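Crash report, auto-generated. Payload:
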Amino acid sequence: MKLTILGCHSATPRTNTNPTSQVLEIKNHMFLIDCGEGTQVELRRNKIKFSRIKHVFVSHLHGDHYYGLIGLVSTFTLLTRETPLHIYGPKGLKEVITLQLKLSDSWTNYPLVFHELTSKESELIYEDDKVEVHTIPLDHRIYTNGFLFKEKENERKLDINAVLNANISVAYYRKLKQGADVENEDGVLIKNETVTTSPIPSKSYAFCSDTVYNETIIPLIKKATALYHEATFLEKNKDLCKRTKHCTAKQAAIIAKKANVANLILGHFSTRYNGYDDFESEAKQEFDNVFLAKDGKVFEF
Amino acid sequence: MKLTILGCHSATPRTNTNPTSQVLEIKNHMFLIDCGEGTQVELRRNKIKFSRIKHVFVSHLHGDHYYGLIGLVSTFTLLTRETPLHIYGPKGLKEVITLQLKLSDSWTNYPLVFHELTSKESELIYEDDKVEVHTIPLDHRIYTNGFLFKEKENERKLDINAVLNANISVAYYRKLKQGADVENEDGVLIKNETVTTSPIPSKSYAFCSDTVYNETIIPLIKKATALYHEATFLEKNKDLCKRTKHCTAKQAAIIAKKANVANLILGHFSTRYNGYDDFESEAKQEFDNVFLAKDGKVFEF
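Recovered output after restart:
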């Protein structure tokens, strides 16, 4: 599981800071998460092949999370893309993208498939044989979702000596990996756990931005391999959180601790600060495995 | 008159090329012309104060000419701007900008004034005591205008010796500068041209992008101090011009020659080329004063 941060700053793009966008590589997918202005340039800078992006997840319709999407959609057209692009995001996204295509008297030469979100409950919005994506309803100034990307449970591992000793036909190995008990060549029922071992734990990534401190997300992100949680402010500016519906680094860390995640990545930093070391130290008072997002940084889990 | 090129490339932004945008400083105005994705960052990079921009002129609704506008409008809000922003561009621009503001459940805290264009004839769209802005109808795939920025005629200069010899009252100097004949202290009518000299020639800048080769613009841009004309292709790719409704460098130079402008700036280069020297040499076969636009380059006239 590999996460590339294209942008991790709030509000407006500057010469040295990009608004929110990231790419999660998981089970051969390249999921684009949020798409602030300039995302297509950051994708190029980070040498991520446009053609590998087939799904875009948009948290909410504040500009720093999606103003780059129409440019990316248009560029895909100019590059004569044919592969469908699936866009998951709040209701309204389809209208604004299609209006801009209409005004330019053009359409994509590839299928553009919108999956508009309106539910305030967590939903399964994407699924294949290897991965699931669920929404994480967040509490921000407008309708907002985080996203939980989960590898499906891996297959159990055969204890090959035990399997051979138990005299099980090769034809049943598949069933064993899926966790079933099987009959051996002598007609005896063999309990699965006696001939297999636990699967490699499946990984998960929770993206939670933007949101006010909100404990209701904890059951949804429980034990995630990595949690990206917004930390727009430091505790010294906590008074700004209530009005803007953002979090401090400390609050993000408390969520990480309560959800018992393995790793916490902080991002969506306000550009009012000159550096972000204080975000790390503030969060580490609550939680150990804290990392700071940085434009262009790659995390591998 | 000072022109700063923020971006001069066609189609999609890349790590080292920006789509169309430029700032014209004329008679204390800072006119923003077109606003491709990333314009707000290029404004910062070129140290142009956001607060000085009060008028934005959008040629047409292809993304490489306006996808950066909504980001700029939003950033002005975050920076608590109060000064009105006037936006001149094709019908539809208001709908797309206001839809995005509505979806983010926000509005600007400054007046946003749209001047939507629909005419196929040249129009005077802005005027004050020093400057006029006229549209230049262009022929592109969708409704497109260039813009002519003109200083108003300067005042005639007094030939102070001649004025004193003619025994004219100081009270009439203003009228003389404005070109009127006046009576002197002895009641004799003094012809204006005997006591004044021609004014400093007023300057003008014509922005023409995007367009196919189109001689109907020539009377509108006649004798401009500077003409920015699109030159998307070289003659060797001339076959692409007809379908895409763009020009070659040579065609731009022919327009410059026929319009008898003082200087020609070429831009809107296709990113298919590795360098742009051939654009200059191709154009110079038709016209001498050719300059190449370049992101970040400043022209003073």
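Post-recovery validation: The first helix of chain B runs from residue 39 to 45.
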